[in-house]
Amino acid sequence: MKIFAAAFLSGVCLVQTRAALDGWLVAGLAVLLLAVPSTLACALLRARCSGARGCAGFSVAMGMAMAALAFGAGVSWTAWRAELRLQDQLGSALEGVDVVVHGRVAGLPSAREGGWRFVFELDPSLPGLPSRAELSWYPDRRTGALPPALQAGEQWSFEVRLRRPRGLANPGGFDQEAWQLGRGVRATGYVRGKAVLLDPEPDRFMHHVHRLRARVRDALHAALPAGEQTGLLVALAVGERGEISPAQWDIFRRTGVGHLVSISGLHVALVGLLCGGALGAVWRRAPVLALRCPAQKAAALGALIAAGGYALLSGLGIPVQRAWLMLLAAVLALFGGRSVAPSQVLALALLGVLVVDPWAVLSVGFWLSFGAVAVILATLGGRPHAVRGWRAAVRIQLAVSFALMPLLIAQFQSFPLVSPLANLLAVPLVSLVIAPLTLLAIAWPHPVLLAPADAVAGLMMKALEWMAALPYAFHEHAPPPPWLTAVGLAAVAALLLPRGTPGRVAAPLVLASLLVWQPSRPAQGGFVAQVLDVGQGLAVHVQTRSHDLLFDAGPAWGSASDAGERVILPYLRASGVRRLDRLVLSHADADHVGGAASVLAGVPVAEVIAGQTEAVPGAHEHRMKGRPRAVAVPVRMACAAGQSWAWDGVLFEFLHPSQGADSSRPPGNDNDASCVLRVRGAGGSLLLPGDIGIRVEASLLASHGEDGLRAEVVVSAHHGSRSASSARFVDAVLPEHVVHTAGHGNAFGHPHPEVWARWADVGARNWRTDAQGAIRIDVSDRVEEGVSVSAARVSGERYWHGR
Predict the structure, then answer these.
(1) This prediction's pTM
(2) Range with the lowest mean pLDDT among 3-17, 260-274, 438-452, 712-726?
(3) pLDDT for 146 beyond 80
(4) Which of 27, 337, 455, 667 is the most exposed place for a label (fewest CB within 10 A)?
C-alpha cells in the first residue's frame, strides 16, 4: 500500500507541474493498460512460486508492477479531473460585462470592509456560466448603504460583473489561480446592481452545515463580546481564520505555531478522544450494550462519528481530511479484526485525500500535515524501548521542527528557530485547556467556558510575542533549488533512521549546505532588474553584485493590504534580499507609493529618495496619498537631474526633474514630477521614466538630445498610457524591449494599442505584466552578450494559467 500511495502521489504531482494537459490523460491510460496485465501476471506467478528466492524475485516484480499501475492511475485520474474542471469556465462573451445571475450562497460568507465576500453556486440556466464563482458585495458608493447580512444556502438574484480567476505572477509569490482552481472557483466578480433574495432557506446538506458554523461563530462572539482572543477561539471552533489579525499571524509565523490556530489533526483526534472516551465509559456500564458490542468498538465508532461531525464543522481542510481518514482506516481495521501498521493507515489517508482532491498537492498544508505525521511515526516506531511521557513529547517536537526545516525554507523562505520551545509551551495549553473549553462551548457557548479559554490564550500570545521578538528567533533564507530541497529531505530521512545506519553521519553536512546556499547575484558590471507584477502600479527591483535598489513600491489595495506586503516583501525574501540600499519613490501617486510603508516596516532600507516632498520645516518626509491614514516615510533627499552614483561597475543617474525644481509644487501634475532613472551596465541600460507625460519627454529630448536617451530596455511611462511615449521619444530611446506595467482588465485600457504599435514600429519587443507576470531583465557584464528578457508566466507556466 505504501508503494502504491507513493507512486500515485508521483503521478498526481507530475500532472500538477505541467504547462499543458495535452496528451497526459492518454499517457496515463497507456501506462494503466500496460501495468494491469503485468500486475495480474506477477500475482499469479507469485501464488504458484516455490522457494524463498523465487518468491522474493516475484515480490520485487509485483512491487514494480503495482507502482507502475498506481503511477498511471495517478496521472490519468488527475488529468481527467483537471480537464473537467477547466471545461467549467466562464464564457468569454460574459467576461467583463454586467449579467444577471441566480444561485445560492455557498460556504461561510466573510465580512470585508463593510461588505461581504462569498462563494456563489450559480444556476447553469444561463449558458457560459461556471458552477461556482467568488463574489464581493461592497457598500453602495453613492449612498453608503451596507449590503444585508448573508446566510449560507440563501438563493439570490444578482447583477454582477465576472471575470476568469486571475492572480499576480511573481517569483516567490502566491499562485491565486491555482488556489481558486483547487476550490472549484472558476470566476470572480462583484455585485454591481440589483439584488433580490429569492429563497432564504437552504436546500442542501452542506448549506445547513455552514449555517450551523455561522451560528456557532455568532454565539461565541455574543458570549465573549470583549474577548481579546475571540478570533483565535472562532478559528479553533469552526475553522474561520479571517478574524485573526495580521500581527497575530506574524507572531505565529515567527514562532512556528500556526498549525495550532488552524483546525488540524490534533484537534480532530482530541474531539474523537473526548467523545469516544465518554461513550466507551457509558457503554461499559450498560451490560445490555456491552454484550451486543464491545465497548472498545463502540468507543471507536463514536470517536469516528464525532470527529466526522467536527470535520464538517471546521470546513474540511486538508489536515482535517487526513486525520479523519486515518481514524476511519483504524476503525475499519478494528471492526475487521485486522492489525494495520500506522504507516499503512497514513498511506490509505494519503490516497483518500488525493482521490478526492488532486489539487491538494499544490497546498503547503498538505505536505506539512502528512510530513509531520510521517516524522512522528518514524520517531516513535521501530525502537526496542518506547519513550513515553514528557520525553516522548520533547523528542517528537524536536524531530518535527527539525525535519520540516527544508519544506519551511522552500515554501516560506524562513525557519522559526524558537519553534521547539514555542510548541512545547503552546501545544499543551491549546490541547489541554484552550481547545477543550472551546469545543465544549460549541454546545454551550457561555462565558464560564470561554472566559478562561480567552485568558489562557491571551497569556500564551504574550509569551509567543516575547519569543518572536528574541534576536535570533527567526531565520530567513532564500529557497534553494528543488534538487537541493530534495537532497535536504533525504538527509532528514537519514537522520530519522536508527543509529549506525550507513551514511547517517553525513546528513548534517547536507543540511548545512542547505542553509549555506545563497542565490547567485549578477557579476561585476552587470545587473538584474525585476519588473514586478503588482497590478495597476509600478515596482522594479534592481540588483547589482552587492547592492539592491527598489524603484517604487506598487499600489495600496484598500485599507487591509498593499503591494509591499503581498508582493514585494515575499519576492525579496525569495530572492535572498535582506536589506535595500536605496528606495526610490518616483512621485506621490498611490499606485507607486502605496506599498512603501510595508516595505519600510518589513526590510531595512538605508535611504529613501523621492520625486516629491512636502515643504515641512525641519523634516524630510513623504506623505503617501491614497492610504486610509497618513503614513510618514522618511526621505533623505529629492531626486534631481544630474545626481548619479555607481555600484559594482553599474551607473545610476537621474535624468529628471531638473535641478532646483520645487518638487512639492510641480508645474502641471504629479506625474510630471516623476523621478526618471537610467541604469547602465556593461551589456546595456534600463530606463525607468515613472509617469512622465509628453511634455516632460520633450524636455528630456531638449536637454539630452536624440542620442542621450538610448536604452536597450525601457519601462513605458505611465503604464503605456497614450499621454506618454510620443513618437519622438520612442525614436530617441530606440529600445530592444519595452515593458508595460498594468493591471489585468484595467479600466484605463493600458497599454494603449497606439503606444504598443509605436514601440513595435521601432523594432522593440513589447512585454506586459498583466499577461506575462513579472518581467526579468538580465543585463550582462559582457558587452557582446547584451540583454536578455524573460517572463514569469512563461518560465513557470502551468496548465491553469489563463484558464
Answers:
(1) 0.87
(2) 260-274
(3) yes
(4) 337
- Do 720 and 758 meet the contact criterion of CB atoms below 8 Å apart? no
Helix axes 246-255, 419-429, angle to 10 degrees: 120
Helix (H) / strand (E) element for 174: namely none
Q: Which residues are paired to 580 by β-bridges?
A: 605
Report which secondary-structure segment, H or E, holds 454. helix 447-468
CA angle 260, 261, 263 (to 5 degrees): 85
Nearest residue to 40 (alpha-carbon basis) of 65, 64, 60, 59: 65
Spatial separation of the C-alpha atoms in residues 335 and 329, rounded to whole Å: 10
614 or 360, which is more confident:
360
pLDDT tens, position by position, 514-554: 888 888 999 999 999 999 999 999 999 999 999 999 999 99
Which long-range contacts does 3-6 make (Cβ < 8 Å, 24+ apart)? 3/63, 3/66, 3/67, 3/70, 4/66, 4/67, 4/69, 4/70, 4/347, 4/351, 5/70, 5/347, 5/348, 5/350, 5/351, 6/67, 6/70, 6/347
Q: What phi and psi values does residue 791 have, to the nearest 5 degrees?
A: -125, 145
A 10 A CB-CB count for 316 gives 16
Is 238 buried (19+), middle (13-18) or exposed (0-12) by CB count in 10 A?
A: buried
The pLDDT, as a whole number, for residue 387 is 57
The residue-averaged pLDDT of 664-671 equals 56
For residue 789, give the 3-state DSSP assignment. Answer: strand
Q: How far apart are CA 692 and CA 538, in angstroms?
A: 13
- Secondary structure of residue 709 in the 3-state scheme: coil
CA 322 to the chain's CA centroid: 20
119 band by pLDDT with thresholds 50, 70 and 90: very high
Please state at what angle helix 419-429 crosses helix 447-468, rounded to 10 degrees.
170
d(CA 101, CA 127): 11
Q: Which amino acid is it at 679?
A: V
Residue 123: exposure state from Cβ atoms within 10 A (0-12, 13-18, ≥19): middle
CA distance 161 to 101: 10
Per-state percent for the chain, helix, strand, coil, to nearest 5? 50, 15, 35
The per-residue pLDDT for range 743-773, each reduced to its tens digit, is: 988 888 899 999 999 999 999 999 999 999 9
SS3 category, 680 = strand
Q: Are the C-beta atoms of residues 325 and 348 closer than 8 Å to each other?
A: yes
User: Fold match between 92-203 and 527-795?
Assistant: no
Contact between 39 and 69 under an 8 Å Cβ cutoff? The reply is: yes
- Give the total residue count for the chain: 803
pLDDT score at 341: 78
- Rounded distance, CA 572 to CA 578, Å? 7
The alpha carbon of residue 73 and the mean position of all alpha carbons in its chain are separated, in whole angstroms, by 28
pLDDT score, position 388: 61
Name the CATH architecture for the domain at 92-203. Beta Barrel (2.40)
Number of CB atoms found within 10 A of residue 130's CB = 22
**Residue entry with cell 520551545:** 421
- Confidence class of residue 619 from pLDDT cuts 50, 70 and 90? very low
Using an 8 Å Cβ cutoff, are 622 and 635 in contact?
yes
Task: Break the chain into its structural domains and give their ranges.
Answer: 2-87, 92-203, 213-476, 482-516, 527-795
Three-class SS of 93-151: HHECCEEEEEEEEEEEEEEECCEEEEEEEECCCCCCCCCEEEEEECCCCCCCCCCCCCC
Per-residue pLDDT at 510: 80
Of 663, 704, 670, give the one whose Cα is nearest residue 687.
704
Return the ∠ at Cα 638 (arms to 636 and 642), rounded to 5°: 120
The sheet carrying 676-681 orders its strands as: 644-647, 650-656, 676-681, 684-688, 713-715, 737-740, 765-768
Assigned fold of 527-795: Metallo-beta-lactamase; Chain A (3.60.15)
